[in-house]
Amino acid sequence: MFLKGLNAMQQKLFLGVAQQLAEADDKISVQERDMLNALSEEMGQQELIPNPDDDVLEAFFPDKASRAAVMLEIIGLATCDGIVPAENRLIKRLQRVFAIPAADLAAYQSWVKRFFAIRAEAVAFFVDRPAQGKAKAIAPVKPKTKAKAKAPVKAKAKTPVKATAKGKAPARAKAQARPKARKPAKPAPRAKGKTAKKAPANNGKGRK
Q: Labelling 65: which of 7, 13, 29, 179 has CA 20 to 30 A away?
C-alpha cells in the first residue's frame, strides 16, 4: 500500500528485509508467500538485495516517510500469520536503526491490527451465507380510503327584527282568539211510559 513512493534501490532493499523476516522462523508460510508476491507486484519490482545490513538501511531510508512505509509493511507481513519471537526481534532491530520512538511503533502495530480486522470484515461480504429457512411473505397493507367530506350545512338566515323609533323591537300583537264553534244542543229525552194523547183541536166551537 505504501511502497509505490520508494525508489528502485529502496524497493530492492525492502524486499530483502521482507524475505529475511519471512525466513526468520526457518519456514515461509502460505500467507507470507502470497503477501511477498503481492508486495512485489505492487511495486513492479522482481529483484531484491538479500540481508541488507544496518548501515545500508539507515543510509538508503533517510526520511520518516520511507521508514514509516517500511515499518508498516514489515509489521503487516509479520502479522499475516501471527508474529513469532524471531520476527519480533527483526522489527525491534528496524526500530533501532530508523530511530523510531516506542509510541510510534505502538501506533504502527495498532493500525496494522485494525487494518487486518477491517479487511476480514470486508472479505465476509463476499461469502455466501447458508439460508436460514424461507422468510414468510408479508401481505401488503391496503391503503385506507379517505372518508368523503360532508357538504356543509347552510345556516338559515334569520329575519331581521325591525326596530322601533326608540330602537326597541316592537312587541308582537297578540293574535285574536277565534270563537270556538258550539255544538248543537241535544234534544231532551222523552219520558218513559204511555205517550200523552194529543188534545183535540179546538175548532172555535164551544161545548154545548
A: 29
